[in-house]
Design goal:
This protein folds into 2 domains: 216 residues, Rossmann fold, CATH 3.40.50.720; 32 residues, no CATH class. It has 9 helices and 7 strands. Strands 3-2-1-4-5-6-7 form a 7-stranded parallel sheet, with helices on both faces. The longest helix has 29 residues. The protein binds nicotinamide-adenine-dinucleotide (NAD).
Length: 260
């Protein structure tokens, strides 16, 4: 295996691993030799994925984890250390959208939920992952933000606010821990055909999946939304054992949207 994509015996936490980016990333990392600690609130599909990966020979722990609950986030790190003795990589991927609407109509509840899951979910992860990694004097963390964390997300104001916060946390944490040989970056994908999009209100509002994809693609220079594997491949590149000097970055994976 090319050493730039060789994750053999790396211990890797992924949150939100039951479907979408998290599940696909788990499969790609398992195929490259990683030991996985997977968490999600959807425990049935999570356990099914773990079973599939175990059958292929991967060492996997799968546990219920609500990232809005600090005890659960700490337990993910404890599981990695107790079982595998180290934590090499953590991907804070779990996230939620909210009902779309103009900013003046968004509910306080939508903002509260975004803060608890999309922001504190990352902060709880960072707190306990960094504590372990500082002891090792090594580690890599990838936070899944969004293009909504780099600019406007019309009708998704609370999500945009939360994802901007994820970018701020990423940059600050990266600066603070860099001298301990810990890298922290954020990935900022454009709309991608995961269940977050394909099972959302946007599909019924647009009158079907293909119409929704076409509508969402309008602003993108590549004139399409992303396929999940395209974003997951970029995640692998950011996590690569060869990518040792990139930290504190919020990387757009956006079909050229941010080139303007
Ligand atoms: N799909 C896109 O267009 C897109 C674009 C940019 C960023 N993102 C981000 O990518 C990440 C992954 O999203 P996805 O597109 O795979 O969506 P998805 O909805 O398909 O998957 C998200 C996963 O997170 C889990 N989850 C939700 N709340 C959780 C919680 N409190 N604790 C633990 N797990 C929880 C869900 O159960 C699900 O398995 C999210 O942070 C999302 O904001 C997605």
């Amino acid at each position: 295996m090319d050493k730039l994509l060789d994750f053999t015996d790396k211990t890797i936490i992924i949150t939100g691993a039951a479907q979408g980016f998290g599940a696909l990333l788990a499969k790609e990392l398992a195929a490259r030799g990683a030991n996985l600690v997977l968490g999600d609130i959807k425990t049935e599909p999570l356990q099914a994925l773990a079973g599939e990966l175990k059958a292929l020979g991967t060492k996997v722990i799968a546990q219920a984890c609500d990232v809005g609950n600090e005890t659960h986030c700490k337990a993910m790190v404890t599981a990695a250390l107790d079982t595998f003795g180290q934590l090499d990589i953590a991907v804070n991927n779990a996230g939620i959208a909210h009902p779309l609407g103009p900013i003046e109509t968004l509910s306080n509840e939508a903002f509260d939920k975004q803060w608890q899951v999309n922001v504190m979910g990352v902060q709880f992860g960072l707190r306990h992952q960094i504590a372990a990694m500082r002891k090792q004097k090594s580690g890599v963390i990838l936070n899944v933000a969004s293009m909504a964390g780099l600019g406007a997300a019309p009708l998704g104001g609370a999500y945009s606010a939360a994802k901007h916060a994820v970018v701020g946390l990423t940059k600050t944490a990266a600066y603070e821990v860099a001298a301990d040989n810990i890298r922290i970056n954020a990935i900022c994908p454009f709309f991608t055909a995961t269940p977050m999009v394909t099972e959302s209100d946007m599909v019924s509002m647009a009158g079907g999946l293909e119409k929704a994809k076409a509508t969402l693609a309008r602003g993108a220079p590549m004139r399409r939304i992303a396929e999940p594997i395209e974003v997951v491949n970029a995640m692998l590149l950011l996590l690569s054992p060869g990518n040792t000097f990139m930290t504190g970055q919020a990387i757009a994976v956006d079909g050229g949207l941010s080139s303007m």
